[in-house]
Amino acid sequence: MQEKARGSLAGIRVLDVTHALAGPFCAQVLADQGADVIKIEPPSGDFFRGIGPFLAEDKDREIGGLFQFCNRNKRSVAIDLKRPEGRELLKKLASQADVLIENYRVGVLEKMGLGYSTLKELNPKLVYTSIRGFGDDYGGTSPYRDWPAFDAIAQAMGGWMGVTGFDADHPTKTGAGLGDTVPGLYAALGTLSALWEARSTGLGQYVDISMVDSVFAIAENLSTIFAYTGNSLAPSGNSNTGLSPTGSFQAKDGTIVIAAPHDHLWRDLCTLIDRNDLLADARLATEKDRWVHREYITQEIEKFTKNHTKAELKTKFGGKVPFGPVYTAADIYADSHFKARDMIVDVPHPELEQSVRIAGTPVKLSRTPGGVQRRAPCIGEHNEEVLTEYGFSSTEIASFRQAGVVFRSALAERIAGK
User: Which of 101, 169, 171, 272 has the fewest CB atoms found within 10 Å of its own CB?
Assistant: First the structure.
């Protein structure tokens, strides 16, 4: 029987001391699989809260679309870490946690007395994961160690931009922030690896993730071509280097993608578009030949595709050759695949009588599937709940609030009063 309310990471407690995208995304990956993720944020909240989009009726504007994207399934405790009492409180939370994730600049938490060297003395089994632009000292000290970084910086220096686009003069980043989310995935993998090892040793360790390293590591063609030939890969548009036909083709109402480079796929494609003459063309006999003449092949295929809509081409090619229409967000939300796979999930807005439809988790486990259990939290919404679980009395919690050590937003106050 499926344990839908409990994912496979149930029982693991994670302190998410992160902001923006890479760190929160890592923690959310763990939360989606059942980990108890407690988001530790300042009284003003994660600055990502202030970035839209927002629902038009939303007056508080505390949970925008980007914040919702990477903070679902978490509880929020807002602590003022600038205060000594706040730092001591975080130490107490860390002493009973399995994981702490942070993505501040190098040395920030160390100066607060909240670095790994301090916390591991309080909790030897703690797995301490950091995500920075160029990593920390544990994995090797980079000459750029102290540089700040964003998604675009990681994509540029990790090599993606240099191989993306239609020519070398116009490098292009990916449309999504993969310079953040890919490091977040690697950080989740590293965290789980360290947790697994700690099961037998009882000892945690430091997990050191660099955004730039992560981008470089996942670019399979960038490194292999240089390593084996000494050549730097140049942008090749939407095609796969050395393979044709692969890439985008114009339809009557948009763009589709076909990948049919191998001999049997090439035969099937030519048959579907009634172009036996292409099969008989000696210039296109081998995969290497077809790559050399890729521009000609694209022109010939588009003589067919330009006369049909994406829907017609989906009926024509779907399931017969590797094919997919280039989808907009509206197309994705309307496609039955994403509904069948629970990839579009409704979560309630904390005050408005409506929900928002967000992306679900692509990780599907048969017995403990995890999934989206709750919306992103308001600032400090779970202060009392979490601190009570840690053994603090109501009097102690009230004193924390009165002293300004912990904070709860007006929206969280209204929710608590309902």
Answer: 169
